[in-house]
Design goal:
By secondary structure, this protein is of the alpha/beta class. The chain has 14 helices and 10 strands.
Length: 317
């Protein structure tokens, strides 16, 4: 530990521990206020500070109860996004990280996907006292374009949080041909990781919407013809497996080229945490919930209301 680390520790203890203002901390340490501000940020970056906000609205909500009853869920947490506050994905990540930590025990294997929402969950994970946890990548993540999936960074942050060992799939999620994909999956390490994904104790994943700016449509995997076919039949994707309004796989020719667990595999995982929000994803989320892909859900309030409206209309028709 160098002198800057020690100064940062002194600053964060005075600022967070005793409640002094930055100016008071500066006076106590004989430093300028801007220097104290930088030391506090350094302390946060080094992991010396952990800040948790417990918002009772995340659990104590009629929306959460109604979602549990409508879809047979074990737990629902709501991401409450304040007006002019943090971005939606960031809030989903915070709530998702907290709920995930409650559902991972010693010796568990945790299956993880990638994408902006999963990266937000990873960035918000706090260090957990767990032993024997393994983190399993549920699908390939190499991009053919400059747009990053952050699959490696996501897995690394999960491992750091749980003191876990990583089982990765350093591959594209969709191959150009079925033959090449099958050959790759015959490799012993790849086959073992996919099998471990199927046998996970916990899976944490998001839901993708079918629209041009969705990440999966911008990684160089799909042709224009394939994108048009997906748009005609699918409402969303989970683990890069496309499903229709009934939650059934609907693009079999693409599934045959996809590396990772299937939707049927996912349903067998005991604890399945879906972290997804945004009203543009409501149709996909509602279909996925009806199909039973989740046991636990993190969703924002506005999307939760929209999903429930869709469910009520379906029940009334």
């Amino acid at each position: 530990m160098d002198a800057r680390d020690e100064q940062a520790l002194d600053a964060v203890k005075l600022y967070y521990g005793t409640g002094l203002s930055q100016s008071e901390v500066a006076q106590r340490l004989g430093l300028s206020r801007p220097t104290v501000s930088k030391l506090i940020q350094h302390g946060k970056d080094r992991g010396y500070v952990s800040i948790q906000i417990h918002d009772p609205r995340e659990q104590e909500s009629s929306l959460a109860t109604e979602l549990c009853n409508a879809f047979g869920l074990s737990d629902v947490r709501l991401a409450v996004v304040p007006e002019n506050g943090p971005d939606l994905v960031g809030e989903l990540g915070k709530v998702g990280a907290a709920l995930l930590a409650e559902n991972v025990d010693d010796g568990d294997s945790v299956g993880v996907t990638w994408g902006s929402t999963m990266y937000a969950v990873a960035r918000n994970l706090q260090r957990q006292e767990r032993r024997g946890v393994e983190i399993i990548q549920l699908k390939g993540g190499v991009s053919y374009t400059t747009r990053a999936t952050n699959d490696f960074e996501t897995i690394t942050l999960f491992c750091n949080a749980f003191g876990a060992f990583a089982r990765t799939l350093p591959l594209p999620v969709i191959f150009d041909s079925v033959e090449v994909k099958r050959l790759v999956e015959e490799e012993e390490h790849i086959r073992r990781v996919i099998d471990m994904g199927r046998e996970s104790d916990v899976a944490v994943f998001t839901v993708g919407a079918i629209r041009p700016d969705a990440m999966l449509f911008n990684l160089g995997y799909l042709s224009e013809t394939e994108e048009a076919g997906i748009a005609a039949h699918a409402v969303g994707d989970i683990c890069s497996r496309f499903f229709d309004d009934d939650g059934n796989p609907c693009v079999p020719q693409l599934d045959e080229r996809t590396v990772g667990i299937t939707l049927q595999d996912l349903r067998r995982v005991p604890t399945r945490l879906m972290v997804a929000g945004g009203e543009h994803k409501a149709t996909a989320i509602e279909a996925a919930l009806r199909a039973g892909y989740a046991t636990h859900l993190v969703i924002d309030q506005d999307t939760a209301r929209q999903v429930l409206r869709m469910t009520r209309r379906r029940a009334a028709s």
